[in-house]
Design a protein that fits this description.
Elements lengths: L1 H18 L1 H20 L9 H19 L5 H32 L5 H21 L4 H17 L1 H9 L13 E2 L3 H7 L3 E2 H20 L2 H10 L6 H11 L5 H17 L1
């Protein structure tokens, strides 16, 4: 009887670990990728080519998927939220803010720090949503929509329009946006003013679509990447993975129940 109970306990622990395997693997990969970008690339505003831009976005994508892959009971969510949300604030307040202040006081650029801080804030907000009971699909929608907003260049337009510029270099709005490197690597040259407007508009539209498209559209898109599966299998698989949005709340909750049971 003792051996049976021990075996049952080991089986439950193993099942619980398997339930969290995707989250653990993705978290480790996200940290490794972020470390590679932070230590492997120069801390500068310039983006030499679109390949570098893609590589720098990879840690964010993996981290978003890690957050979406969380399978936690409600009680564990509440406990972890009291740990990780204040921790995210401390990373912002005790790591980024002092460096920004130091750079400003010594007439150094803190542009790269802000570029790095912004995806971190997006991930912190997405994590807070997930720990608060949000679905995995909802976490993906928020994460990817907000990173598109960051990449859109809307802050460049805001810089030109909401600030009281007197320098002729910035007012009226320049005809060529030589400083917008993320646009330059896309067009292969500095974007014109009208091209920049279109670039921003397209990103905003994509962000809105990610946030608002019905779940059936995402299930259909997900089905395109599942060749050889039946329609029913595609839909059920999508719900279980939480790719969808609002329905992902139910799907995510059902997917998390085995984790709760396995944990006892």
């Amino acid at each position: 009887m003792v051996d049976n109970r021990t075996a049952g306990s080991d089986t439950g622990a193993g099942a619980g670990l398997r339930e969290h395997r995707a989250f653990i693997i993705l978290t480790v990969l996200a940290l490794a990728a972020a470390g590679a970008v932070w230590f492997g690339f120069p801390h500068e505003k310039t983006i030499p080519n679109i390949g570098v831009l893609i590589v720098k976005v990879v840690p964010f994508v993996i981290a978003t998927e890690a957050i979406a892959a969380m399978r936690l009971s409600q009680s564990l969510r509440e406990k972890l939220s009291r740990l990780f949300i204040p921790l995210c604030f401390l990373v912002f307040f005790a790591f980024f803010v002092p460096q920004i202040f130091f750079a400003a006081a010594n007439d150094k650029s803190f542009y790269y720090l802000v570029l790095t801080l912004t995806p971190f804030i997006i991930l912190a907000l997405t994590l807070s949503f997930r720990l608060g009971g949000g679905s995995s699909g909802g976490a993906r929608r928020l994460g990817y929509a907000m990173i598109l907003l960051q990449l859109s260049g809307i802050e460049d337009l805001a810089f030109l329009t909401i600030n009281p510029h007197t320098d002729p270099a910035w007012t009226p709005i320049p005809q060529v946006w030589t400083w917008a490197d993320h646009m330059t690597v896309f067009f292969g040259r500095p974007a014109t003013k009208n091209e920049a407007f279109v670039f921003i508009a397209v990103h905003l539209v994509l962000a809105v679509l990610i946030l608002t498209l019905p779940d059936r559209i995402w299930r259909k898109i997900g089905g395109w990447f599942r060749p050889g599966r039946s329609r029913n299998t595609e839909i059920s698989g999508t719900k279980a993975s939480g790719v969808n949005g609002d329905n992902g709340v139910d799907g995510g909750a059902k997917a998390e129940e085995p984790a709760v049971t396995a944990q006892g």
